Amino acid sequence: MIFHSIENIKTKRDKSFTEELIAVYCKIVREVCRKHKLAANATIIEPSAKVLQELCDIGIIDCADQLSLLKRGIANFDEFIWSVDFAVNNPDLVGSLLDKLNNKKRREIQVDELNKDKPTIADFFAGAGGLSMGFVQSGFHVSFANDFEEVCVNTYRYNHPETPAKNVLQADIRTIVDNIDKYITNDIDVVIGGPPCQGFSSANQQRIIDDPRNELYKYYLKAIEKIVPKFVVMENVRGMLSVAEQVIEDYQSIKATKDGKEYTYTVEYQLLNSADFSVAQSRERLIYIAVRNDIAKDKNITPKVLFEAIQKECKEKKVFNLSDALAYIKPLDAPRIKNTNEVDDEKTGKKIDTNVYTGHDNEYLSLINEGRNIPLVYNHKARYVNDINYDIYRLLQPGEDAANEKIADIMPYKHRLHCFKDKYYKLIPNRPSRTITAHLRMDCHSHIHPFQIRAITPREAARCQSFPDDYLFLGAYLKTYMEIGNAVPCLMAKQIATIIKQYL
Questions:
Q1: Confidence band (pLDDT; 50, 70, 90) for 205?
Q2: Which is nearest to 120 in space by CA: 138, 108, 106, 107?
Q3: What is the domain extent for residue 216?
Q4: Contacts of 213-219 spanning 24+ positions with Cβ under 8 A
Q5: At 204, is the pLDDT very low, low, confident or very high (cuts 50, 70, 90)?
Q6: Domains in the chain, number
Q7: 3-state SS track over 437-460
């Protein structure tokens, strides 16, 4: 589950994650109070029987006797107890906002999910869960997921309460595949994922499956061979086009055995742009779809047919621009003091904030939030900017970059402009955003807000990736940019999933 009992928290990492979850809990309660104009002064209180039971339901203690251990073990004990007390006494105000932070509620969600008999996916290299989110929105169930990055796994577990936390592994795919029966015990309809593939240079004459740099890709194929799913969806960067035909050959060489029968796969690829899927971002990705031979025969389909159906749907979809993604969200000022990215305030933003809008105030927001009212907005916090960069941000107009003459005197990389032309770029509001990348964790100069003197926030980047506004990215502030930048846009994944689901 999301919480471990305080008695079982042994490592510094476990304690840090527990305290982050508790901080999230407290912040949500405070914002509920603020939204309803209630005082939120946490005073020391003696936990009632209701509070003790709720702490057990949350999963942070197993019994009342562990309360003293909890008090000694966490830094913000008093605020946490007060927040839990408020939550149990104001269920109508809190609603379902804290369900993801409650082990009992998560178990209920998981039981309900299993009773719905949904098609299943296994997501390798899952990251923060964008690809999975699209499949979930289309009606799939995540049976298994993995990633190597701890912060991504934590974010994934939080946002996917329908999947038991033990089925979302922080582990190397090599360990998983070599012991696949230990981790995946049920039939999987679709395997999805985006394996890293460093050794695919067009000058490389070696088959990519044999390149030692591509061992993770090799194990992704091994996973397919052992799981024997009906469909496979693999996402990768445009650069992999140079070896696309090699990948086709690799998939065609798969000979999987299940229940005494041998299966093979037919595979095709296409370069797809997220903007064609109503995502407010231009993002080209190479997508492979593989179909198991018996499914292809029984359903009279091929990967080509699936891609044609996907493309047909895209033709009917509306194109959204950056301005659609940036609408109806609080304007912010960039912090001007170093080391304040983690500090919440009204001017620079908060990790969890009251949403002054509804969450579906325009067509795009309604689409990514599935028409839901969103009471709180997450990860909308501006990034620190120094004096030089502040002036650059101020002077540039939408569409202008580092080569612009008006910043020539202050451009810090002017002697290497050929390398740093894209270092600074102010986004154009009436076009889909340029590609959101993981590099944003290093700096955000390439994604300057078109109207405000700052870079885009993690929430604004997440909107450009079509994540719902209540998808919470855990971890340190700068790492949230990495989580978002590496993700597959949810709407893009949802459309692919919807087409595949028709044949399950």
A1: low
A2: 138
A3: 105-317+490-501
A4: 215/174, 216/125, 216/173, 216/174, 219/173, 219/174, 219/177, 219/195
A5: low
A6: 3
A7: CHHHHCCCCCCECCCCCCECCHHH
Asked which of 10-24, 32-46, 111-125, 447-461 is least confident by mean pLDDT, the reply is 32-46
Identify whether residues 135 and 176 lie together within a single domain. yes
Q: Is residue 428 part of a domain?
A: yes
Q: Is 197 a catalytic residue?
A: yes
Taking alpha carbons only, the member of 207, 236, 243 closest to residue 220 is 236
CA distances from 58 to 16, 161, 164, 330, 343 (A): 17, 13, 15, 32, 27
* CATH number of 230's domain: 3.40.50.150
CA distance 465 to 275: 10
Residue 358 one-letter amino acid: T
- Per residue in 133-158, pLDDT tens? 999 999 999 999 999 999 999 999 99
End-to-end CA distance of the chain: 30
> pLDDT digits over 30-58, tens only?
999 999 999 877 677 789 999 999 999 99
- Residue-level pLDDT at 207: 64
Same structural domain, 232 and 357: no
> In this structure, are 28 and 141 located in the same domain?
no
CA torsion, ordered 32, 93, 331, 128, to nearest 10 deg: 80
Please check whether residues 157 and 230 belong to one and the same domain.
yes
Question: Of 26, 33, 197, 444, which is the active-site residue?
Answer: 197
Other Cβ atoms less than 10 A from the Cβ of 36: the count is 11
Same domain, 11 and 140: no
For residue 442, report the phi and psi dihedrals to the nearest 5 degrees: -80, -50
Between CA 316 and CA 477, with CA 142 as vertex, the angle to 5 degrees is 85
Identify which of 50, 1, 51 has the alpha carbon closest to the alpha carbon of residue 21: 1
Given this model, what pLDDT does residue 203 score?
47
Residues 30, 290: Cα–Cα separation, whole Å: 48
Residue at 379: amino acid letter: N
| CA 299 vs CA 161, 295, 303, 493: distances in Å | 33, 6, 12, 22
Q: What is the spatial distance between Cα 317 and Cα 272, in angstroms, rounded to a whole number? A: 14
For residue range 266-293, what is the model confidence (pLDDT) as tens digits? 999 999 999 999 999 999 999 999 999 9
